[in-house]
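Bug #77: duplicate submission created two jobs. Keeping one. Sequence:
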Amino acid sequence: MTIQFERIGQALGARVTGIDLAQPLTLADHQALHQGLLEHQVLFFRDQLLTPAQQRNAAALFGDLHIHPIYPKIAEQPEILVLDTDLNDLRDNALWHSDVSFIQSPPLGSLLSARHVPPHGGDTLWASCSAAYEALSAPIRGLLDGLTAVHDLTLSFPLERFGNTPDALEKWDAARAANPPVTHPVIRVHPETGRKGLFVSEAFTTRINELEPGESTALLQMLFKQIARPEFAVRWQWRQGDLAFWDNRLTQHYACDDYRPQRRIMHRATILGDRPFGP
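Kept job's structure:
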């Protein structure tokens, strides 16, 4: 089989055919997917119902894997976290965000596998933060290039939602202690392509360090609105067995919470990356 990429969005997104991710990837497969990820930012695969071990192995070819401090995991493969609406409070996923930006070296990317999908609803959108940045005016880009912002786990994992039982409180306290707030540049330079993109999110960014509180709030709200503009996004309608692989460094995503009380189960493998740097 020959790997092929079919672009499905103007700003980002491609559907990939000609590969079975349940099989060990060859060097050529790995290189093709790597280049496709850099070009398209998010890749979609149909009919790839991987076991947790197969998903872990595919993700591990691209780097070390993160173990989430709060969400439940597969017991035999703790690198695979479980996003299950019957088990988790997933309201933080219905916000634009990049995964785990609250650590010093946020993820390179993630592989998300659809295990159980509702009969309707439950789509996920991805936005290109580089396209959003490039559409800003030159004076605003110049201002942003020198700013830094704080990312905090507790913004999307607050005590009142994730510490409401003794066991949950113990886990939450440990997660907060191990993951204090961190500072990242507002504009991130992609370490491989050199492309710039917005690196703030409504899920984890609390303030811009160099600005007064009112200025910080106003500018962040403008940037959040910019990222969410539909012309910078692609929307994927899940089928069971679908898999998405995205570059977490210059994208954000939003999981539509429009299917309750139906159940939705996703498995995610998260690939650790490098420490962000600015212009």
